[in-house]
Amino acid sequence: MSSSSSDWSSKKVCVIGAGMAGLVAARELRREGLDVTVLEQSAGVGGQWLYDAATDGGDPLGMAGVHSSLYASLRLNSPREVVSFSDFPFHPIGGGDVRRYPVHGELLRFIREFCDVFGLMDAIRLDTTVVRVAVAPPRRDGSLRWTVRSKHNGDAETEEVFDAVVVATGHYSQPRLPSIDGMDKWRRRQLHSHSYRVPDSFAGEVVVIVGCNVSGKEVALELRRVAKEVHLSAKSTTEALTPSMSKMLARYDNLHLRPLVEHLCEDGRVVFDDGSFVIADAVIYCTGYNYSFPFLETEGKVTVDDNRVGPLYEHVFPPSLAPSLSFVGIPAKLILPRFAEVQSRWVAQVLSGRRTLPSPEEMLRAVEEYNRAKEAAGLPKWQTHHLFLDLEYCDEYGERHCGFPRMEQWKKELIWSSISDMRDDIETYRDDYHDSDVIRDGRRLHGWPPSPPLAPRPQEKDDDDDRRRKAFSPSKFSLR
């Protein structure tokens, strides 16, 4: 059943989610001649990038169902030159935010334009929540089909049968919370960064931020303008004390780096594992997200175990249910638009019959080998799908599975330069960058407007690409 794709051109495919992954999946499936329906729970396309000023009001720890995790002032932390699809660049337009790292609304504009240019809206049903996806009675040839139950704007539920389902629901909506003694008894404000939007309500307060990756630092920098004190809690203060963090602490007297939170006390104390404490008004958890597919019923054939979705062959196909069930956009710590396009093209070519999959047994063995290799490298299970911006792996993945072209060298250098700049100074890297000749020539050849003149880098920065890659620490960087 795994590699059976007979007469797929006449078959119906359901894509769940109309964010970047779902939209590019719909486009690639249509290009292969498949009949596509996209179900989207929100009132518009964009997924995570459809900003919602509302938060999980009654559930500030973020479990109440608001999809978007964007806060109002957020800017991209990846250059717009690489946040694009292979044939649809994220060029600036007049009247918009033309900066290399624009505000989130500019990316939503780009997503909507992508949807319009490729005529995808007629395939999308907005305000439609998927309630249940389960195996339906098979076709006469024994191949799998899927029953999809959905609800439109609170109306009665409807059921449809599809020949394949592509899950593209993202993974930045279900907060991942730490287990800290006293969390359940602490009566002051607690929230996950998923529910953070604006800093105003924290004016004059003492705030503890748990988590010291990109989002934790950026929320801290915004809050320090209005809060009395902001304390950033890290698993390891030694590892957290990057050049960027050192600059933050030197600039602002009300920013403090703290060790791991040991427990919370009912009287408002937040006690750290070195015995020190602060009396806080609020705790914000910038601790990441969990994969969650509450609508999916597979009788245990696809599970989420400590954030490992599996088994998934190459992060896409569950061996025993392939190719009729697939996932696009599962991997993290990478350039999502491009990799989602690669995965979508592969799925589309498999479903159209242009490519075949290995047997279920071979796919399962490959998954087990991949997981063993991760574990042997010392990576915890919850990082199974983290690719740590391995651009060579991404290139080989695309070439192997769907003949996707490799990323241009100038874009790779731009990514490494961006990471280096962020690690040096998270406050200034978006607006104070210095492109190499390779980047400037690449941008010019591909129709991008001129970048600022090349200026000497500070002495502590190194332009050697290999040095930049070695300086990249996966635990401290995540791409939006």
Using the 3D structure, state the CATH architecture of the largest domain. Answer: 3-Layer(bba) Sandwich
Beta percentage is: 15-25%
Sum up the overall morphology in one term. Answer: globular
What's the mean pLDDT score?
Answer: 91
Q: Can you give the helix content as a percent range?
A: 25-40%
Widest sheet: strand ordering: 3-2-1-7-21
Q: Biggest β-sheet, characterized? A: 5 strands, parallel
Low-confidence stretches: 1-6, 454-480
Q: Kindly report the name of the CATH homologous superfamily of the largest domain.
A: FAD/NAD(P)-binding domain
How many helices? The count is 11
- Judged by helices, strands and strand pairing, the structural class is alpha/beta
Q: Determine the N-to-C terminus distance.
A: 36 Å
CATH fold topology of the largest domain: FAD/NAD(P)-binding domain
Query: How many β-strand stretches?
Result: 21
Pfam families: FMO-like
GO molecular function, one term: flavin adenine dinucleotide binding
Family: Belongs to the FMO family.
EC number: 1.-.-.-
Describe this structure as you would to a colleague.
With 480 residues, this protein is an alpha/beta fold. It folds into 3 domains: 267 residues, FAD/NAD(P)-binding domain (3-Layer(bba) Sandwich), CATH 3.50.50.60; 110 residues, FAD/NAD(P)-binding domain, CATH 3.50.50; 68 residues, no CATH class. The protein is built from 11 helices and 21 strands. Strands 3-2-1-7-21 form a 5-stranded parallel sheet, covered by helices on one side. The chain has a 5-stranded parallel sheet with strand order 9-16-10-11-12, with helices on one face. A hairpin with a 4-residue loop joins strand 14 and strand 15. Helix 1 packs parallel to helix 6, helix 6 runs parallel beside helix 8 and helix 9 packs across helix 10. The longest helix is centred in the last third of the chain and has 17 residues. It is an enzyme of class 1 (oxidoreductase). It comes from Oryza punctata. Belongs to the FMO family. One of its GO terms (molecular function) is NADP binding.
